[in-house]
Amino acid sequence: MKRLFSLLALPLLAIGLSSCSSQVKAKRPVSYQFKNGQTAKLVNGVAYAPKRAPLAVKRAIAAGNRLQHKPYKWGGGHARHNDSGYDCSGTVSYVLREAGLMKGSMPSNGFYSYGKKGDGDWITVYVRSGHVFMTIAGLRLDTGWGADRSGPRWHTRTRPGKGHVMRHPSGL
C-alpha cells in the first residue's frame, strides 16, 4: 500500500515542481534606494507615493499607511477586511484589495499564482512557502522576518530575496 501511494504521488510531485520552476525567482536582496519621482518616500513611518505613480499605486500606499502600527495577528485580515491585526498574507491581500487589484483574500501560498510572473514596474509581490511581502514604488511592506514579527510596517532596510517567487499585478 505504501509503495502504491509513493508511485501515485510521483506525478503530483512532478507537477508541483514544474509549476514552481517556471516561476521567476528573486536572485538579489530586496533593497530600497530612493530615486526622486520613481520611488515612494518614507517620512516618520508614513509613505508618500511619487507624483507620477498610477492611481492604483497611490491607493496601495494609502492602504499600507492605514496598516502601520497594527499588530501581527495570525489569520488577521482574512475573516474581516478591517481587522485588529494582520498577518503577512492578510496585509498583502488588504493592500491589493484597497488598490482595486484583487478581490477577497488568500493565504501566502495563493500568491504563487497572483497576477503576472516577475518583477513589476510599481508593485512586486514576493512569495515563498509560508510567507509573502511586497514592494510598492520600491518601498517594502512586510510583517517582518526572523524574530521581528511586529506586524505590517514600511521598511527601508535590505531583506534577503533569495528563494522568493516574484509576481506583480498586470500593468504595474
Keywords, please?
26% helix; 3 helices; 172 residues; endopeptidase fold (from Nostoc punctiforme); two-stranded antiparallel sheet; alpha+beta; disordered N terminus
Describe the structure.
The structure is a single chain. The protein is of the alpha+beta class and 172 residues long. The protein has three helices and eight strands. The protein has helices at residues 2-21, 55-67, 88-98, and strands at 41-43, 46-48, 116-117, 123-128, 131-136, 139-142, 153-155, 165-168. The strands form two sheets. The protein has a six-stranded antiparallel beta sheet with strand order 3-8-4-5-6-7, covered by helices on one side. A two-stranded antiparallel sheet has the order 1-2. Strand 1 (41-43) and strand 2 form a beta hairpin. 34% of the residues are buried. InterPro entries: Papain-like_cys_pep_sf. Residues 152-172 have a biased composition (Basic residues). Residues 151-172 are annotated as: Disordered.
Fold topology:
Blueprint: H1 2-21, E1 41-43, E2 46-48, H2 55-67, H3 88-98, E3 116-117, E4 123-128, E5 131-136, E6 139-142, E7 153-155, E8 165-168
Antiparallel strand pairs: 1-2, 3-8, 4-5, 4-8, 5-6, 6-7
